[in-house]
């Protein structure tokens, strides 16, 4: 039974899926869900190629690379134990991803079947993506690595001990040099939703692949996506049975204080006070801090946490009528709002809604960095970090060029997307990277729900609060590939 990648919404028990689930790495079709991660970017020791190959093979054979099937079995057991009131068994999630250089280091020189951006690596796209110069990336990322080992666990000390043990093992065996280690740590609000460092609920809108994960309401936005959004045949696995996915990793530092001060300046410029002030940031992100889409909110008021159960709504689009008004003119969510730039939900310019959807990705990032006062505790400006914290952005896709790069370059960084008139839209105020010397400008509605040009106020401060510190393009190979090494 072969797997049809064009199929949307498959069952976990679909025979075609079950036939590949043991060979596919986990975390691609559903998130591993752990709150703590450790990832090591390494360069293999060229003098030990045979040993490295043997080691990777052993990892796959001994199930120390988590397959999609294993991930689901672990999650089912965890949920069952939790439901029964028992302390759930915490198990490691492990993923192994290779760069094109990594394949070469393992002895594979003919990589023509892989995505061209993957073959070239992230550094080759630096100018195209308006990324900082490679010399300004963090040291470990300036020299391209061969592989990324991802560990995830629910208990932080256990995770950290494992990462330390693994790094020591690589060093002792002289298998690889560790170029960079990143620890991810999930923050949550009072009701357990994950927050990013600017204080907004993250991870709400994701493509969904399994019927079991399908939300009940999907009239206005159906997140169910075909498997081909993220899966491609593994060129070095068993034809028809082995699949993999491209993995983009970017370390994105967040200047929290700078961003929150700018939100306040915007609120002042728009005359928003007290409870209304939160709308300034909500228009920048596209959702209120509790996850409520600005477009869906029938009121200009801050949506309080007691409404949080409805905060994470994702069944919406910008043409939908709320209280008799659509949001096609950006009177509630301006066109530059981060979630509108990165998913226009059928209101982008020039592409059919079906084509537009194919630029989305399965986002698997996690926040990093320690802070004394967490976002949920509403720190004062001088208690907010300006560096050392951020997002370990990660995404799975079937084409780096058509998904991650398209989103960053053609949507987030492009001032004229989706519109250049009557006002230019401006870059994405969260992740947009202007061209060198390009001025940044945005327009925000001064009166709620009124997107007419006369109601728009120019405000120029939103850029540069997220800084790319390094990253690379990887492939998550099938387990068969590792077993055949
Ligand atoms: C530090 C950097 C970033 C921050 C703080 C951030 C924050 C957020 C937040 C708060 C949301 C709303 C929650 C949700 O809908 O899941 C969101 C959604 C999203 N972000 Fe980001 N993000 C960052 C980087 C990126 C990058 C680099 C990309 C892609 C190039 C991206 C693409 C998206 C997409 C596609 C959505 C979902 C939009 C939708 O479907 O409505 N984000 N982000």
* Radius of gyration (Å): 22 Å
Distance between the termini: 26 Å
For the sheet with most strands, the description reads: 6 strands, antiparallel
DSSP helix count? 14
Assess the beta-strand content as a share of residues. Answer: 15-25%
Mean of residue pLDDT?
94
Considering DSSP H and I runs of 4 or more, what fraction of the residues is helical?
25-40%
Structural class: alpha+beta
What is the overall shape? globular
- Count of individual beta strands: 14
Order of helices and strands: HEHHEHHHEHEEEEEHHHHHEEEHEEEH
Uncertain runs are: none
Please provide a written account of the structure.
The chain is an alpha+beta fold and 485 residues long. It has a domain at 15-252 and 476-483. It is built from 14 helices and 14 strands. It has helices spanning 15-21, 49-61, 68-83, 100-105, 116-120, 139-142, 156-172, 256-270, 278-285, 308-311, 338-342, 353-357, 401-412, 479-483; strands spanning 36-44, 93-98, 147-153, 176-185, 187-188, 194-195, 232-233, 243-254, 362-363, 366-368, 390-397, 442-445, 456-459, 466-476. The strands form four sheets. Strands 7, 8, 9, 10, 11 and 14 form a six-stranded antiparallel β-sheet that branches. The protein has a four-stranded antiparallel β-sheet with strand order 2-3-1-4. The longest helix is centred in the middle third of the chain and has 17 residues, at 156-172. The chain is globular. The two termini are 26 Å apart. The structure holds protoporphyrin IX containing FE. Protoporphyrin IX containing FE is lined by residues 196, 198, 200, 202-205, 252, 254, 285, 287, 338-339, 342-343, 360, 390-391, 393, 404, 407-408, 412, 430-431, 466. InterPro entries: Dimeric_a/b-barrel, DyP_N, Dyp_peroxidase. Residues 24-171 form the DyP dimeric alpha+beta barrel domain. Its cofactor is heme b. This is Peroxidase.
């Amino acid at each position: 039974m072969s797997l049809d990648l064009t199929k949307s919404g498959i069952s976990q028990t679909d025979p075609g899926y079950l036939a590949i689930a043991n060979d596919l790495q986990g975390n691609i079709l559903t998130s591993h869900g752990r709150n703590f991660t450790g990832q090591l970017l390494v360069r293999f020791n060229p003098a030990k190629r045979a040993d490295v190959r043997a080691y990777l093979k052993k990892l796959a054979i001994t199930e120390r690379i988590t397959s999609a099937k294993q991930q689901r079995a672990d999650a089912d057991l965890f949920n069952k134990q939790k439901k029964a009131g028992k302390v759930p068994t915490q198990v490691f999630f492990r993923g192994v991803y290779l760069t094109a250089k990594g394949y070469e280091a393992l002895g594979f020189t003919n990589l023509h079947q892989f995505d061209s951006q993957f073959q070239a690596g992230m550094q080759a796209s630096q100018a195209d993506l308006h990324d900082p110069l490679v010399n300004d990336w963090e040291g470990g990322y300036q020299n391209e690595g061969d592989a990324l080992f991802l560990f995830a666990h629910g208990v932080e000390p256990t995770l950290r001990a494992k990462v330390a043990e693994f790094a020591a093992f690589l060093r002792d065996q002289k298998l690889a040099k560790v170029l960079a280690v990143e620890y991810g740590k999930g923050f949550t609000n009072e009701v357990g939703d994950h927050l990013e460092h600017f204080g907004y609920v993250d991870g709400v809108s994701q493509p969904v692949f399994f019927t079991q994960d399908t939300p009940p309401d999907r009239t206005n936005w159906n997140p169910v996506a075909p498997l081909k959004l993220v899966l491609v045949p593994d060129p070095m696995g068993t034809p028809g049975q082995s699949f993999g996915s491209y993995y983009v990793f970017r370390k994105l530092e967040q200047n929290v204080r700078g961003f929150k001060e700018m939100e306040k300046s915007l609120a002042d410029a728009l005359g928003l006070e007290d409870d209304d002030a939160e709308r300034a940031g909500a228009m920048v992100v596209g959702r209120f801090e509790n996850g409520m889409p600005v477009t869906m909110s029938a009121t200009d008021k801050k949506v309080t946490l007691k409404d949080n159960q409805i905060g994470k709504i994702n069944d919406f689009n910008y043409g939908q009528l709320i209280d008799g008004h659509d949001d096609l003119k950006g009177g509630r969510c301006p066109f530059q709002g981060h979630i509108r730039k990165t998913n226009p939900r059928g209101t982008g310019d020039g592409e059919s809604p079906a084509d537009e959807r194919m630029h989305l990705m399965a986002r698997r990032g996690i926040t990093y960095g320690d802070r004394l006062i967490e976002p949920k505790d509403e720190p004062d400006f001088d208690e907010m970090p300006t560096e050392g914290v951020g997002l370990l952005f990660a995404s799975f896709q079937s084409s780096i060029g058509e998904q991650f790069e398209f989103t960053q370059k053609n949507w987030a960084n492009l001032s004229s997307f989706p519109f250049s008139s009557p006002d230019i839209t401006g870059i994405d105020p969260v992740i947009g990277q202007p061209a060198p010397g390009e001025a940044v400008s945005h327009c925000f509605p001064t009166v709620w729900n009124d997107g007419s040009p006369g109601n728009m106020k120019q405000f120029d401060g939103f850029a540069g609060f997220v800084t790319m510190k390094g990253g690379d393009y990887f492939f998550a190979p099938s387990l068969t590939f590792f077993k055949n090494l």
